[in-house]
Amino acid sequence: MKASTARLAAVVLVGTSLQAAAAQDHPPFEPTRDVTVDYVTDARSRAPNMPNTMRIYLAAGGKRMRMEAPGMPGYMLMDRAASRVVMVMAEQRMYTEIPLDPSRTAMLTLNDKMAFTRKGTDTVAGLRCTVWEVRKDAAHGGTACIADDGVVLRGESSEGGGAPTHVTATAVSYATLPDSVFQPPADFRKLELPAGMTPGMMPPGVGRPAVPAR
């Protein structure tokens, strides 16, 4: 699974995993119910290895997430409560776990150190949302259109003055999500990676099981 895919998820997560905020006007902290959102993004115009569509599954409370995209060899699971990321390699019927890097998480989530400014309202994917300008610091910021239940329907993120990345919801479902959505399949094998190696660094064939998984 490419690291760039995880980076793209950051744009969508803006507004879905807020920490305790100060007494100020701010968006909803986290999604209040299970939700599945299909997004389209313009990221591929600047990074050809990034998908231009993706599906995000979020559990109520925003602590667990699953991200998948057409053409990718697997999908990513994130569990903030357990501080872990699971990269599932569907074709190999394997998965691996890596720690959730707190320094990266700090850049993906909003908190009470950031400034929020209302910019109006809009309708995206048939749902009403409030447009917020978010400033992390002088070099990092963006906007997000967030529904009253905490679901991000449109987002724009820029870093260091570079070209922004946009994502827009095209479909939203509030069907209840079973725990299995946020876990690797029980019959998949766990791959222990050498220290310092990530799934995107593995050469072709590395980690393929010697015998078929049952």
Mean pLDDT: 77
**Structural class of the secondary structure composition?**
mainly beta
Overall 3D form = globular
Strand fraction = 35-45%
**Order of helices and strands, N to C?**
HEEEEEEHEEEEEE
Helix share, percent? under 10%
| Quaternary organisation | single chain
DSSP summary, beta strand count: 12
Rg from alpha-carbon coordinates: 17 Å
Strand order of the largest sheet: 7-8-9-10-11-1-2-3-4-5-6-12
Largest sheet geometry:
12 strands, mixed
User: Which stretches are low in confidence, meaning pLDDT under 50 for 5 or more residues running?
Assistant: 14-23, 201-214
Distance between the termini: 23 Å
Number of helices: 2
Compact summary:
The chain has 214 residues and is mainly beta. 8% of the residues lie in helices and 38% in strands. Strands 7-8-9-10-11-1-2-3-4-5-6-12 form a 12-stranded mixed sheet, with helices on one face.
Q: What report would you give on this structure?
A:
The longest helix has 11 residues, at 3-13. The protein has a twelve-stranded mixed sheet, with helices on one face. The protein has helices at 3-13, 102-108, and strands spanning 35-41, 53-58, 64-68, 74-79, 84-89, 94-99, 115-124, 127-135, 140-146, 152-159, 165-173, 189-190. It has a domain at 3-110 and 173-201. The model is unreliable at 14-23 and 201-214 (pLDDT under 50). The protein has 214 residues and is mainly beta. The radius of gyration is 17 Å and the shape is globular. The chain starts with a helix and ends in a 24-residue tail after the last strand. Helices cover 8% and strands 38% of the residues.
